[in-house]
Write a structure and sequence with these properties.
Blueprint: E1 8-10, E2 17-25, H1 27-31, E3 40-51, E4 55-69, E5 76-92, E6 96-99, E7 102-106, E8 111-113, H2 115-125, H3 144-154, H4 163-166
Parallel strand pairs: 5-7
Antiparallel strand pairs: 1-8, 2-3, 3-4, 4-5, 6-7
Length: about 170
């Protein structure tokens, strides 16, 4: 079964005005995309579609969590995501992406596949560097054993042969 077919929005039979949709995005969704590092996810998407005479305005509210690997300690954790996105669909002679928020569909189109847009929205909500959140006391939730090993490795060992060179530095 093609998981992504659930994200095809048929708008041709809809009347003008607001229409609401809900999508649940899980592991199966991300498995359909190549080169993704996301394995487990639980995301809810509330879509508000405002159908107008010659345009569609899609407002996405995206909330949930994605299980990712911490870049500091390499333990997995659930990273919360929460954001809003807007996509404007205009109708014209041929498909075109005017910019990242506005696309033009052929005027005879009757549906739009939202899966790639949802994927992009979610991936762009993730930070470049993913680390565990800090608790209320400011302490990291990272694996304490790994953090201890990292601190030991980051302390440079000084070679005693270089100690005599410090005597050559004058305070003038």
């Amino acid at each position: 079964m093609d998981i992504l077919k659930h994200y095809i929005l048929h708008f041709s039979g809809l009347g003008l005005g607001l229409h609401n949709y809900q999508y649940k995005i899980s592991n199966d969704f991300f498995a359909e995309f190549d080169n993704t590092e996301i394995g487990q996810a639980s995301i809810n998407v509330d879509l508000s579609l405002d159908k107008q005479e010659r345009m569609l305005v899609l407002d996405f509210e995206i909330k949930g969590s994605i299980n990712v690997m911490c870049d500091r300690c390499l333990d997995n954790f659930d990273f919360p995501i929460d954001g809003n996105e807007r996509l404007i669909v205009k109708f014209g002679e041929a498909f075109e992406e005017e910019n990242e928020d506005v696309i033009v569909l052929h005027e005879h189109e009757h549906q739009i596949d939202l899966s790639s847009y949802l994927y992009d929205f979610i991936i762009l909500m993730l930070p470049i560097r993913m680390v565990h959140q800090e608790d209320e006391n400011g302490n990291s939730d990272c694996n304490p054993e790994i953090i201890k090993k990292l601190k030991n490795l980051s302390e440079p060992e000084t070679d005693p042969r270089w100690g005599s060179l410090k005597d050559l530095i004058s305070d003038n």
